[in-house]
């Protein structure tokens, strides 16, 4: 394994443990996690591998195969920068349960595609530390630690979906997670058995303002919940009544969150019934809601969805936080060429950068490699 070789070359010995954690795509349930709602992501075949040996001092030495050069040495947590913050944040939150560590990282999550490379990094490192220090953390506790590192150390107010998908997913299945109780269940998601493929369309675009807009949406949802007198938008049962009490953006955001939660439950019902081919309409409805009510789509995502449907997809939607990143399309295998051609042609016509196509096959969650 090349990460083990790089570790040995840099630090002079083999690593004590090696963990792999995947990125994710979200099938449905977008911008619902921080509203205590439901999500249905699954792990993708790309992820982050972390080779780690604990140290008996407080120094952190970090090497990434994606950032060639000498290892970065971090003496105090506050001095970490860039990608190292996701790693140092995890160590920081573990406090005196851990000391320093030598860590080598190798990742193959397509960058900027919105497939949660940062969650994969947090979960890989947290899993390795949990292992070498015998901390006894459950996969969900590892996910929560990763989320907290991102919230409190990196400063991105994300929900729990990405880290939970990375820590808890199972091969060939989607992860149905209640983001309030944190109860989860995996559901068979066998696309090939139904002659289907889930195609990721990576727009290769990531809009700059994404972070600020994400925090703004979150604040709008919290404000709407306060006005409605509920703990979170998850608790709205009378949607028409709630909408009558709200105005403007808060009204639109609430309508999205409440209907999106229903769509997750409906999609889970279809999967349980073995009706995978029927989920397309819910994917389409989710996209329209994210585009028109939550306002987190982008021209590239909208064109990808529309062109995929014209090319023969059974359903398509943006996935992840939005403002760029990726869309997913549910495609009968015999239509894969036609869908890709349709999207590529539509991009060329508008002068967009060519998209990248990746097949999404549900992969296992975090696991030890050696
Ligand atoms: C990002 C966040 C997640 C979630 C999605 C939107 O990926 O990290 O917690 O909120 O956006 O569904």
Describe the structure.
This protein has about 375 residues and is an alpha+beta fold. It has 2 domains: about 1-190, Ribosomal Protein S5, domain 2; about 190-360, GHMP kinase, C-terminal domain (Alpha-Beta Plaits, 2-Layer Sandwich). The protein has helices spanning about 1-10, 85-95, 115-130, 140-155, 160-170, 210-230, 240-245, 250-270, 280-290, 300-310, 335-350; strands spanning about 15-30, 40-55, 60-65, 70-75, 100-105, 175-180, 185-190, 195-205, 315-320, 325-330, 355-360, 365-370. The strands form 2 sheets. Strands 1, 2, 3, 4, 5, 6, 7 and 12 form an 8-stranded mixed sheet that branches. A hairpin with a 4-residue loop joins strand 9 (about 315-320) and strand 10 (about 325-330). Helix 3 (about 115-130) crosses helix 4. The longest helix has 25 residues, at about 250-270. The chain is globular, with a radius of gyration of 21 Å. The termini are close together. Bound molecules: alpha-D-galactopyranose. Alpha-D-galactopyranose (GLA) binds near residues 34 and 321.
Find the count of extended strands (DSSP E, 2+ residues): 12
Which shape, going by the Cα principal axes?
globular
Straight-line N-to-C gap: 10 Å
Query: Helical amount among residues, as a percent range?
Result: 40-55%
> What is the CATH first-level class name of the largest domain?
Alpha Beta
Poorly predicted parts: none
CATH topology of the largest domain: Ribosomal Protein S5, domain 2
Summed over residues and divided by their number, the pLDDT gives a mean of 97
Number of domains: 2
Number of helices: 11
Structural class by helix and strand composition: alpha+beta
Sheet having the most strands: 8 strands, mixed
- Radius of gyration over C-alpha positions, nearest whole angstrom: 21 Å
Strand content: 15-25%
| Order of helical and strand elements | HEEEEHEHHHEEEHHHHHEEHEE
CATH architecture of the largest domain: 2-Layer Sandwich
Bound ions, cofactors and other small molecules, one mention each: alpha-D-galactopyranose
Q: What is the subunit arrangement here? A: single chain
């Amino acid at each position: 394994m090349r990460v083990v070789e790089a570790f040995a070359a840099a630090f002079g010995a083999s690593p004590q443990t090696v963990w792999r954690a995947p990125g994710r795509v979200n099938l449905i349930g977008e911008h619902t996690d921080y509203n205590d709602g439901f999500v249905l992501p699954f792990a993708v075949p790309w992820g982050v591998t972390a080779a780690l040996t604990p140290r008996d001092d407080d120094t952190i030495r970090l090497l990434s195969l994606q950032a060639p050069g000498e290892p970065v040495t971090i003496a105090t947590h506050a001095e970490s920068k860039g990608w190292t913050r996701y790693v140092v944040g995890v160590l920081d939150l573990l406090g005196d349960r851990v000391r320093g560590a030598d860590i080598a990282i190798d990742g193959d999550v397509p960058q900027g595609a919105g497939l949660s490379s940062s969650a994969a990094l947090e979960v890989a490192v947290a899993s390795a530390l949990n292992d070498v220090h015998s901390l006894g953390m459950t996969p969900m506790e590892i996910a929560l630690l990763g989320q907290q590192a991102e919230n409190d150390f990196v400063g991105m107010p994300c929900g729990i979906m990405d880290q939970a998908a990375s820590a808890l997913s199972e091969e060939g299945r989607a992860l149905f997670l209640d983001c309030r109780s944190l109860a989860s269940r995996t559901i068979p998601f066998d696309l090939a058995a139904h002659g289907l493929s889930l195609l990721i369309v990576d727009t290769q675009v990531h809009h700059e303002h994404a972070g600020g807009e994400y925090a703004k949406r979150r604040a709008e949802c919290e404000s709407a919940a306060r006005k409605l007198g509920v703990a979170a938008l998850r608790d709205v049962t009378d949607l028409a009544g709630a909408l009558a009490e709200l105005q403007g953006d808060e009204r639109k955001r609430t309508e999205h969150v409440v209907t999106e939660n229903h769509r997750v439950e409906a999609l889970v019902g279809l999967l349980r019934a073995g009706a995978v081919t029927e989920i397309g309409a819910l994917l389409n409805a989710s996209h329209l809601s994210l585009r028109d009510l939550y306002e987190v789509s982008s021209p590239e995502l909208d064109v990808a969805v529309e062109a995929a449907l014209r090319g023969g997809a059974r359903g398509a939607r943006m996935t992840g936080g939005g403002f760029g990143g990726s869309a997913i399309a549910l495609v009968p295998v015999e239509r894969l060429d036609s869908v890709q051609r349709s999207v590529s042609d539509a991009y060329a016509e508008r002068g967009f950068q060519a998209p990248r196509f990746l097949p999404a096959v549900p992969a296992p969650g975090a696991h030890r490699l050696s």
